Amino acid sequence: DWWIWRRCFLTGAWSEIKLDQSASEVKRPGETVKMSCVISGYSMTSYNIHWIRQRPGRALEWIGYMYTGDNNPSYASSFQSRFIMTENVPSSTQYLEISSLTAEDSAAYFCARETQWLKAAEQLYINLYRQETM
């Protein structure tokens, strides 16, 4: 059987901010797919990029995120084994690779930039946590 991979093109709140995803692909079960998310319109090393998927007729599922520039992804527990997030900072691109594809992986996959407000709140939490542990 063949499985269809759909990806969406997302833009930020301003037209100059853009996350441009790779085209749809068709893969066989057991194969590997590598999706790209090209970032433009802002400094890549300023925000978290999240990956989300939506299987047909199902709710959105959060896969994980990576703060651009640190190459240290965080995954939801159900996506830790076959899903790998990487990045290429010079080309302002993040990637999501899925190995050993199954029918359950057939979905629309999205990359999304975290808002500045969320990033500031996360940094505040990290700073407060560090103070409490010292």
Automatic annotation (TrEMBL):
Identify the GO cellular component terms for this protein.
extracellular region; immunoglobulin complex; plasma membrane
Which UniProt keywords are listed? Adaptive immunity, Cell membrane, Disulfide bond, Immunity, Immunoglobulin, Immunoglobulin domain, Membrane, Secreted, Signal
According to the entry, every stretch annotated as the Ig-like domain falls at: 15-111
Please tell me where this protein is predominantly located: membrane
Where is it located?
A: Cell membrane; Secreted
| Organism superkingdom | Eukaryota
Leader sequence residues: none
Would you kindly state one Gene Ontology biological process term found in this protein's UniProt entry?
Answer: adaptive immune response
**What protein name is recorded for this chain?**
Ig-like domain-containing protein
Q: Write down the species.
A: Fundulus heteroclitus
Q: What is the lineage of its organism?
A: Eukaryota, Metazoa, Chordata, Craniata, Vertebrata
